Amino acid sequence: MSEMAEMAECIARVSTSGVPMIRSSRVQDLPDYNGPIGLSGYAGCGKTEAAGFIEQAYGYKRQHIAEPLRRMLASLLRDYGYSERNIERWLVGEWKDGILIPELGVTSRHLQITLGTEWGRVQVGSDIWAKLWRIQAEVGRAFDGKGRLNDSVRFPNEEASVQQAKGFTILITRPGKGPAAFKWRRVGPLLYRWFGCMWGVHDSERVDRLHPDYVVVNDGTIDELHAKIAQVVRKAKAGLASASLRG
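Above: the chain sequence. Below: its structure as tokens.
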């Protein structure tokens, strides 16, 4: 596509969506900087879509902070005799939320949240996953030169691990999407639905405790979400690259 054609396409998209025009979202147009990026937001807000776009457009590699605990749970489910296909369905697929694991009587999401929070963060140490993610991100980038992307930032210290490594974080919101896990199964959802109260929301869902560098409202099409993410990434990477040169 020629530059004039690309510009015309951008103008046409802006005229219907109201999204600020971005000349190009290709990695070649960005400064030579690949610090970490963190995405946060409720389930269904668009984090996975945004992460896929960042990987494709900017050469980043997704490194989910829950990967270590998923490997732990995969080992448990193998010992119960489940096939690799069904383990994948429970841990990252269509069975994650709605299908109970028969022998355990809970969903995979419940297992992942409680293993990560009640066991890992509470019983072991609050930095257990954040430290591991940062180590793996640094090793991975040194190995292949690709910046790492955490598409599930849930706690302030996880957010800080990205920001302190000269990266930035994006909170994605979407109308109608809210917490998926609560401390009190009946009271928690009611308090949130009626009053927007976060007291009964599980700690892993408390996005109100985060201090993201940018907020993106995902209230349109997939193309509009991509355009908003591209605008944020371009601005953030340019600013951080300039800061690195000055520092």
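The CA atoms of residues 18 and 185 lie 40 Å apart.
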